[in-house]
Design goal:
This protein is an alpha/beta fold. The chain has 2 domains: about 110 residues, CBS-domain (Roll); about 40 residues, no CATH class. About 35% of the residues lie in helices and about 25% in strands. It has 7 helices and 9 strands; from the N terminus they run βαββααβαββααβββα. The longest helix is centred in the C-terminal third of the chain and has 15 residues. The C terminus is likely disordered.
C-alpha cells in the first residue's frame, strides 16, 4: 500500500489538488473532513469530470467530483481479498484501515507489482496443503544448453543448469529410465 495518504479538503479546488498529486507522483487523493474519509479523487476523475467537460480546474471543488464513499479494507486482510473487493466493486484503489483509521491506499498497480511473489506463495501453500506424493514425469524445455550452448528440444534442469541429453550423460535420464523399467 501507499502511505501516508495524500488528502484534500472537500472545498479545495481541483487545480490545487492536481498540482499536489503531480508533485507527490500519486494517482489519487482522499477527500477528508477532520479524520473522516469522505471520498476519493483519482487522476481519471480529473480527466473525465473536469478536463473532458472543459471546466476550469480552479473553479471545481473536490466534493463536486469525488467518488463517495471511499471503499476500504482492514489492514489485516490478505491481499487476495483486496483484489477481490476491487474486482467486485469495479475500482482501482482501495483505502486501507487500521483501528478504523485510514492508513494507506492500495491500488491495482500495487497488486500487479507483487503478483509473481503471490504465485510463489500460493504454489507453496498448495504443496503444503496437499498430500500428493505422486512422481511426475520431467518437464522438458527447448532452448540452448547451459554447458555446450547447442540447441535442444529436451533440456532438463539439473543443479540449476539446463542441460541437453548429451550433456546429461553420467546422470540417469528420467525418460530412458521410464522406458527401460
Amino acid at each position: 500500500m501507499n502511505s501516508p495518504v495524500l488528502s484534500a479538503l472537500p472545498e479545495e479546488d481541483i487545480q490545487s489538488i492536481s498540482s499536489r498529486m503531480s508533485a507527490a507522483k500519486v494517482g489519487s487523493v482522499v477527500v477528508m473532513k477532520e479524520e473522516t474519509p469522505l471520498g476519493i479523487i483519482t487522476d481519471g476523475d480529473i480527466v473525465s469530470k473536469v478536463v473532458s467537460k472543459n471546466s476550469l480546474p480552479n473553479t471545481v471543488k473536490a466534493e463536486q467530483i469525488m467518488t463517495s464513499p471511499l471503499r476500504t479494507i482492514e489492514s489485516e486482510k490478505e491481499i487476495i481479498e483486496a483484489a477481490r473487493v476491487m474486482v467486485s466493486q469495479h475500482i482501482k484503489r482501495l483505502g486501507v484501515t487500521y483501528r478504523k483509521g485510514l492508513v494507506g491506499i492500495i491500488s491495482i498497480s500495487d497488486i500487479l507489482a507483487i503478483t509473481p511473489e503471490l504465485f510463489d506463495i500460493i504454489s507453496e501453500k498448495r504443496a503444503m496443503m496437499t498430500s500428493d506424493t505422486t512422481v511426475r514425469p520431467p518437464s522438458f524445455l527447448a532452448g540452448y544448453c547451459d554447458q555446450c550452448n547447442q540447441w535442444s528440444d529436451v533440456l532438463l534442469e539439473i543443479d540449476s543448469r539446463f542441460l541437453c541429453e548429451e550433456c546429461r550423460t553420467g546422470k540417469e535420464d528420467p525418460e530412458e529410465a521410464e522406458t527401460a523399467g
